[in-house]
Amino acid sequence: MHTQYQKLQQLYRHEEIQSLCVDKDFMFAFIIAMASSKDEIELQQWINMLRKDQCDPVFSTTELATQFAQVILAIFSCAQGCFQNNTPLALNSECWLDDKQQLRPIASAFALGYIDALEFINTLCDDATTNETTANLQQTCFLLLSKLAYPDTLDVALRTLFLDLPEYDEILRCLPTLLTTYGFQCHYE
Prior knowledge:
mainly alpha
């Protein structure tokens, strides 16, 4: 996953990508989450979610469009490989806290991307075929990612709920294994 993330970072050196596309960490998480879907959802159905305006991606050069597609497919394929082999995703999440144990922006962006993708998947897929273990794992993912995504929420109910959840460092430590277990369970339940 590190190699794919580095390629994504290189892609974001293009001003056009920065101006047209969502945050790179949001995108990275969104793609990984899409790879966890038990139902095959065609790339054409969700690629527009990677753009700020949610329109079909159109780039100024064929080369840039090709690079964009290659990076997306490489991340997707790598994530599916991790799920298939039940190998924890290499997210580097241990670096998502600063020296004061506060979340860095990458943590919130990643969490928001993953949550958005799970919500998108849920709108397209039939929940009736999901077993209890998978449903529980998904709920756990939603809860822990929500704490990362909304650390400064003013919603009293959410703040109260977050108090009962593990601390950020614990969440970040278990996140790669949790997301992999969820992806594995979705595909091989």
